[in-house]
Amino acid sequence: MKIFALGLIITALTLLLFPQETIWFGVLHLIGVSVILAFPFLKFKRLNVLLGFLIIAIGLVLWNLSFGFSWLLPLGFQPEGFVSFDYFPILPSFGVVLLGIALGNWAYAGGKRSFKPLKIEGSKPARFIAFLGKHSLMIYVLHQPAIIALLLLMP
């Protein structure tokens, strides 16, 4: 809910500051919705591979079409002339989530890791990657306005 709420805040801010490029369903919205949608799929194991590729295929078809309405925008039905700074519709993006669930079910079959991790703990690269992981949401939230500002400053 926290991630989805941040997405709603970004929607409100972009609506006020950049009404022509408002973020209606960006990556934070997608993550928030995907966490909820993913729960029933956790038990499907290999079926998630098929469902994931099917959802990706449907989403790629939708990506090349435009529609005369906007109420299904979160699913991937883009209205004519749609523009946004950040757009990650459920179709095809949730398909990637399902592929990740399938990979996780394979890599951690029976709740146990099926591979040996690299022995890099404590190294500078590992500490840096751990730092990025622990602060990824804040990094994402801060990088968006920085990129938008740079783009707006370009001639």
Could you explain the architecture of this structure?
The protein has six helices and no strands. With 155 residues, the chain is mostly helical. It has two domains: 2-114, no CATH class; 116-155, no CATH class. Helix 3 (47-63) runs antiparallel to helix 4. The radius of gyration is 18 Å and the shape is globular.
Give the arrangement of secondary structure elements:
Layout: H1 2-17, H2 27-38, H3 47-63, H4 90-107, H5 124-134, H6 136-153
Helix pairs in contact: 1-2, 2-4, 3-4
Order of SSEs: HHHHHH
> How many DSSP E strands?
0
* Domain module tally: 2
Mean pLDDT: 93
Count of alpha and pi helical runs? 6
Shape field: globular
* Fraction of helical residues: 55-70%
Report, as a whole number of angstroms, the end-to-end distance. Answer: 38 Å
Uncertain runs with pLDDT below 50, 5 residues or more? none
User: Which structural category fits the helices and strands?
Assistant: mainly alpha
Strand content: under 5%
